[in-house]
Amino acid sequence: MNRTVARIVEGTPVNEGEGVLVHRPFPSAQGLREFDPFLLLDEMGPLELPPNAAKGFPDHPHRGFETVTYLLSGRFEHRDSYGHAGKIEAGDVQWMTAGSGLVHSETPETEFRKTGGRLHGFQIWVNLPKRVKMMAPRYQEVPKDRIPEGKSADGKVTVKVIAGEALGVSAVIDTRIPIQYLHFTIQPGASLEHPFPKSANAFAYVFAGAAVIDCQRVEPHHLAVFHRNGESVKIEAAADASEPLQVLLLSGEPIGEPVARYGPFVMNTRDEIEQAFADYRDGRMGTIAH
């Protein structure tokens, strides 16, 4: 049985960091605060940036979860207080586990800031269960040529497998909890059926073309949340669309624990949030050596 759609949520335009425009379907004023185990989904842009106009996310702390950045265009630099540093560009993925806490920054790469260009990408936040919330921070950076790609037998559906598996290929990224993070491209009129464990929560986010899911049309910047009432989903690219459907399909096993969140920290209790602020204020999460 294919899952049915519980609701469709439109991404809200929000300025983040130093003024980066994102479309955010959750957490949102539309009532979708989090979607266990996912805490946030932001689509950055797409924006055409003139020279010296690119903005980013300067030094800020995190504790208790993971941030995942996937770029479609543009170039960003990462630095953190654990000494990790790297650069990502179109097609690359950065998976940072904040764990016990660190300070990090994501800023436009120097040459990209100078020349300008197209910025488009995604950031998701993935919660961590209590047993590993205070693990040592870690950083995984995977360039586009290491992101596995699959293709349907008729060639009308392709996938980039960031986490999990699809169309016979498996991801190279190590995750702390069972997650699927898939970027599908589906030609107009073609369709896809993809399996999930019945226990997993799942959603689809459309960012180009148009989808038909459970007899409902889903346009760009919209998120379709699935009921947990089947072991697969069916997604069709609208036959009248002028371009292929681009859709992110994510699923994860719910953690099922209390969520206490405030700004950059996500823990299980209010006391733990207050301790995180105290640790950051007292310098126990370190500083970035620029």
Second rung of CATH, namely the architecture: Sandwich
SS-based class: mainly beta
Number of domains: 1
CATH superfamily: Jelly Rolls
Helix content: under 10%
Question: What is the residue-mean pLDDT, rounded to a whole number?
Answer: 95
- Classified by CATH, the class is Mainly Beta
CATH fold naming = Jelly Rolls
Coarse morphology: globular
Tell me about this structure.
The protein is mainly β and 290 residues long. The chain has one domain: Jelly Rolls. The chain is 6% helix and 52% strand. The chain is built from 2 helices and 26 strands. A hairpin with a 4-residue loop joins strand 7 and strand 8. The longest helix is centred in the C-terminal third of the chain and has 12 residues, at 270-281. The chain is globular. The N and C termini lie far apart (53 Å).
Topology of helices and strands:
Elements: E1 5-10, E2 12-16, E3 20-26, E4 38-49, E5 57-62, E6 65-73, E7 75-80, E8 85-89, E9 93-97, E10 102-108, H1 110-115, E11 117-127, E12 138-142, E13 149-151, E14 157-163, E15 165-166, E16 169-170, E17 179-186, E18 191-195, E19 201-208, E20 211-213, E21 216-218, E22 222-226, E23 232-237, E24 245-252, E25 260-262, E26 265-267, H2 270-281
Antiparallel strand pairs: 1-22, 2-3, 3-4, 4-11, 5-10, 6-9, 6-11, 7-8, 7-10, 9-12, 13-14, 14-17, 15-16, 17-24, 18-23, 19-22, 19-24, 20-21, 20-23, 25-26
